[in-house]
Amino acid sequence: MNLIFSGMKDFTTGHVTRQLLQFSGPLVLGSVFQNLYNVIDSIVVGNVLGKEALAAVGAAFPVLWTLISLVVGIASGASTVVSQYFGAGDHKNVLKTIDTIYLFFFGASILVTGTGIALSRPIFVLLQLPENILPDALTYMNLYLSGMILFFGFNSTISILRGLGDSKTPLYFMIVAALLNTALDLLFVVVFRWGIASVAVATVLAHGFAFLGGIWYLNHSHPLINLSVRKIKFDYSIFRSCVRIGLPTGVQQSFVAIGMMAVMGIVNGFGTNAIAAYTAALRVDSFAKMPSMAFGSALATFAGQNLGAFNEKRAKAGLYSTLFISGTYSIFVTLLIVLFGKGVMTFFTDDSAVISIGQQYLVIVSSFYLAFSLMFSFAGMLRGAGATLIPMIITIVSLWVVRLPLSVYLSERTGVTGIWWALPVSWIVGFVLIMVYYLSGKWKNKGVVKKQPVDPFPRKTGEDD
């Protein structure tokens, strides 16, 4: 039985590199536009409301990510489950997985919103956030949290579509949502002068539009998908598979988020200029790394489908192509940032001290993007295989055993620059460890599909290279 879903792709046949480029292209653009939310917010806030407000938005980000990272990680597991069932030709379990994902996200959004609003002030106090920044950080964070159900709803739709091989549709919604967020930012902050609260409200409204648009698209464009509040059902068996595969990634991201929060606490000790610089530079850094992360996500879907169809050779061919694509990109973007990093910082602020500190971060960190991109490529292969436990441990070790202690040690001796150097060192350690695990071969046979499907997708000879 060959499933035909509008916009969805079967990666078990065809030219490997071409398919990865075609699929990852929309993922890259989607990641760019998704990240535009934070970049545009920071540019508008920094230029209109000042460096204190810019620092407040930056201080809120790692706390927000800590609250949502576990749930987002489980979503990655759900996407892998969808891709493997789709690769095996099992559309019944594909549909069960979709129902289960949405119900899980609904419950998680309520829990995250309540927990975040209750703990936001104590967390900021614990991180020693300067008093002049605290009120704005609380306002931004609590309003952002109020729209968490819309954020999670949209991310669940993205996970479903990408698991089914559809990377273009999420891109379209992200583009429209990013443009809407930009327009509302300019209207609320520049024209109406409503302050930092309106920045969070603009993002929530953009998420809501994207989520509702995604639901409408699924119900009207896919003949086998019919989402209904009255008919939706939770499948515990499928949820256990999603958790088994996604929980290690979620725990990994949680530890990463907590680590980012701890790093923010170290940066906070160097004052408002350092916080504002870190906020702006981190936006540029995240923007630059997004394509490498998208290449890894594309490989996860590609590998998931092919391993679900018991074609390990083709999955490995996808890894080799991704390593080349991602590595080439990382070298190119490193050159751009080293040459133009100072100019990019001026988009966020005209404060010379903030610009100088941010430029130092960008030059140091971007010089090691190659290690980051290679690490993410191997991680994508392992995630597609369903082997997420060891990569989780590796990530935790590289952050908590390497980056954080090194940040404290170096910052005490060289100042805030020492915090920047600790990050690429942790990437190098993580890359070496994850490559060793891949070469060991212990990641095999971790998927949800345990038997060769009786009626696999029909193949065409000569298309597997």
Helices, by number, come to 14
Query: Strand portion, in percent?
Result: under 5%
Report the C-alpha radius of gyration, rounded. Answer: 22 Å
Low-confidence stretches: 1-6, 454-465
Count of folded domains = 1
Written account of the structure:
With 465 residues, the chain is mainly alpha-helical. The chain has one domain (16-440). The protein contains 14 helices and no strands. Helix 2 runs parallel beside helix 4. It is globular, with a radius of gyration of 22 Å. It starts with 15 loop residues before the first helix and ends in a 25-residue tail after the last helix.
Jot down its keywords.
single chain; 465 residues; mainly alpha; 14 helices; globular; disordered C terminus
Brief description of this entry?
The chain is mainly α.
Task: Draw up the topology in text.
Blueprint (H helix, E strand, L loop, with lengths): L15 H34 L1 H38 L2 H36 L7 H13 L1 H16 L4 H24 L4 H26 L14 H33 L3 H37 L3 H34 L6 H15 L2 H17 L3 H26 L2 H24 L25
Helix pairs in contact: 1-2, 1-6, 1-9, 1-10, 2-3, 2-4, 2-5, 2-8, 2-9, 3-4, 3-5, 3-8, 4-7, 5-7, 6-7, 8-13, 9-10, 9-11, 9-12, 10-11, 10-12, 11-14, 12-14, 13-14
